[in-house]
Amino acid sequence: MSEETKSLNFIEHIIEEDLANGLSKDKLRFRFPPEPNGYLHIGHTKAIGISFGLGEKYSAPVNLRFDDTNPAKEEQEYVDAIKQDIAWLGYQWENELYSSDYFDTLYEWAIKMIKDGKAYVDSQSSEAMAEQKGTPTQPGTNSPFRDRSVEENLDLFQRMKSGEFEAGTHVLRAKIDMEDPNMLMRDPIMYRILYAHHHRTGDEWCIYPMYDWTHGESDYIEQVSHSLCSLEFKPHRKLYNWFRDHVYEYNKNKLPLPPKQREFARLNLSYTIMSKRKLLRLVEEGIVSGWDDPRMPTISGLRRRGYTPNSIRQFIEKVGVAKRENIIDVSLLEFCIREDLNKTANRVMAVLNPVKVVITNYPENKEEWLEAENNQEDASAGYRKVPFSREIYIEKEDFKEEAGNKFFRLTLGGEVRLKNAYIIKANDIVKATNGDITEIHCTYDTDTAKKVKGTLHWVSIKHAIKAEIRAYDRLFMHEAPDSDKDKDFMEFLNPNSLKVTTGYLEPSLSNAKAGERFQFQRIGYFVVDKDSSKETLVFNKTVGLRDSWAKQRPKPQNNNQNKPKQPQQKRSAISIVQQLGKKYTNYPEEKQAKAKAEIQELAKDISYNELEPLFSTAVKKAGTRIAVMISLKQLLKNGLERNEAIDEFINKALEDKNELLVKEASEI
């Protein structure tokens, strides 16, 4: 096996299976379909990476399509920002498309749906429709307007389009089934009246298609082969297919490929808000300076903070493609940018909390330009010159009058090495009236071969340039700031998420340009902000050299010596079922019956989300597949709705060579 060979994720398995079943490779087409109602954030990078990554893997086109069906919330600013972000990440789209391109076609298809008795105009209030919708456990009831004639529906719908009615007086609904267990199938709205200026179509339309009607049909018009979306759209798949199948009948000669929707787990990040609505609130209430504030999880915010496209792509690759929701620790993202900048960022010296050092035995008017390596990780980075003089700055925390054996920096009577320069020894200090140290008097030694334990960064006071330093930290103190239903996520804001100070930098940075990234030695990684000018340099802190948050997490206390031994944590039902499944085919008949009864009982405590990932269990693991089938049967008996994934699992089992598995599948 070559080093480049990697196991396929479940989406790639689906595509490979479709290709094996006759789908021509040149028919593969993907899309990334953002709604232009906000800026893209780190959560979107997973969807971007999946779709564009598949395009690269299979040499297939990827469309960038803006699902612009709600002019009340959409703006050209968001369209432009989204395009900039995707291009910055290094992806290229085949076509730039808009759902609004298809408004005429969607309207014509809606007319056909009305003529076929599959859609009707409802004239109830939104409150009345919501009341009739029912609940997940109670069926809905039909609208009193559901049986309007085709002629009346056509007349009303065309008059809706002509602007004869006020917003909210009529909607067009699909006629499906008000008793369907999936509430999205209970006569969903296809069109609503909305008098709002559209960023592309202007005031041409006053009725706008709903997302569920527009999204799948746009996929179909573009002949997208695999419509990939996040897990919250899984319940929508049944409606996606219903709409798709009807328009397919109208157009199958011209548009032969019906798209297939498949879902993946979205990216959730600790200490981070992913809701565009909540991010907009942060902007509107002035908590942050804008969508590109470096504390924001937006791609533009990450870019301004100093993140690189490569670091984000590496992060997405490490996260992987999964079927189940989970929360990724933000420290993984920070690790990826550290790893990338460690290889690419030049090292420089900057002092952010200075104290003055006077080297008393160094001539007052002398200065030297010493050679410093730019990046020890990159041999091609070369060297630069840094000035040295009698008076320098070091960090205040790098000096203590007295310190223990584990303090390897400067102390009275102690010696340290100055990076790229000499060894100095602290002999005396000068204090202000309040006791603060204002000067440290040292002597230097030209014998740089001498062994000392500490090395400090520094800058020559005479040559230092001032810069505004913006030290950013996590915007929220809580690991899941929007998880508490009883509290507003704003209550978890970190009051210290931004600290602005003045730093003193080596002169090589005087011509640094916006977007350039550096490692401030012994401090962290920084980027030149767009607010910089010739008069004032502004640096944003990207990330520290180490994860400072890890130290803040409470460590488990070892107070168990005198405590009674705690009972072992109870194993989950799904893990016991898996264990029973591993041995199932080796059991004698009597023990199989006992194991089956146990699995049926355990299934009462298993959710579908726990069971579904086991549908892809290898064929050779027949016992596990049997245990999953027994559990599935119990879930279906208890009211679980059958879906495409379940049908696919059962059908594969019916074709299996194992008779026990076939028997269990045939009983469903």
TrEMBL record:
Residues 555-571 have a biased composition (Low complexity). GO terms for cellular component: cytosol. Residues 27-342 form the Glutamyl/glutaminyl-tRNA synthetase class Ib catalytic domain. GO terms for biological process: glutaminyl-tRNA aminoacylation. InterPro entries: aa-tRNA-synth_I_CS, Gln-tRNA-synth, Gln/Glu-tRNA_Ligase, Glu/Gln-tRNA-synth_Ib_cat-dom, Glu/Gln-tRNA-synth_Ib_codon-bd, tRNA-synt_1c_C2. Residues 345-445 form the Glutamyl/glutaminyl-tRNA synthetase class Ib anti-codon binding domain. GO terms for molecular function: ATP binding; glutamine-tRNA ligase activity. Residues 455-529 form the tRNA synthetases class I (E and Q) anti-codon binding domain. Keywords: Aminoacyl-tRNA synthetase, ATP-binding, Ligase, Nucleotide-binding, Protein biosynthesis. Residues 125-147, 548-573 are annotated as: Disordered. Residues 134-144 have a biased composition (Polar residues). Its EC number is 6.1.1.18. Belongs to the class-I aminoacyl-tRNA synthetase family. This is Glutamine--tRNA ligase. It comes from Winogradskyella luteola.
